[in-house]
Amino acid sequence: MSWDPVHDSRRAFLCCMRAQCAPGTAVGPVPLPGLVADPRIDAAAAVLLTLLDATTPVASCGTAAGEAVAAVRALTGSPLTGLPEAEFVLVTGDPAEAIRRAPRGDRDRPERGATVVVVAADVRETLTLAGPGIPGRRSSAVALGGDARRERERANRALPCGVDLLLVGDDGVLALPRSVTIVEGAA
Asked: Which key words tag this protein in UniProt (predicted)?
């Protein structure tokens, strides 16, 4: 593993934070820790390696995600949990089910809503986004299918509760915070 826990973690953290500040904009590339062979899954593992510690419950959806989470857990000590209790979820494949089952927080503790880290697919759709961090509206190529978008909308109906998404691909990290709206039918 060629991961520098100080410098590479800092670079990965900055990618995540800059992506959160500019929703719908990919920020990267994310440094790769060399934990798994697939570079996209490895980049998602880098995000987890940066954001998790021994007190952060994590879950996975997808066989390849399970392998990456196991490698991250070996380094961070993060407890493995089921989807309904996870603070972070790594997803390979369609994220709709993970978004549906991930915790959303509640009125007294909205911060308990999960962050779902999705290994982005090649297929992307241009969507129009609106909300905090976006001046007016922004068109963005997003790897998030219709079922996942509908589950995200349901999960985020009772703001400030909801689920945040980090889509990790070859071009870096693209954030869809719960406060951002996908404007259907707009270009």
From this structure: Lyase
CB 114 within 8 A of CB 87: yes
> What sign results for the dihedral spanned by CA atoms 60, 140, 49, 122?
positive
Q: How far is CA 13 from the centre of its chain?
A: 13
Domains and CATH numbers, the chain: 7-183 (3.40.50.11310)
Outline where 29-184 has alpha helix (H). Answer: 39-51, 63-76, 96-101, 146-155
24-47 pLDDT per residue, tens: 999 999 999 999 999 999 999 999
Q: Render pLDDT for 32-87 as a digit per residue (tens, 0 to 9).
A: 999 999 999 999 999 999 999 999 999 999 999 999 999 999 999 999 999 999 99
Helix axes 7-21, 39-51, angle to 10 degrees: 90
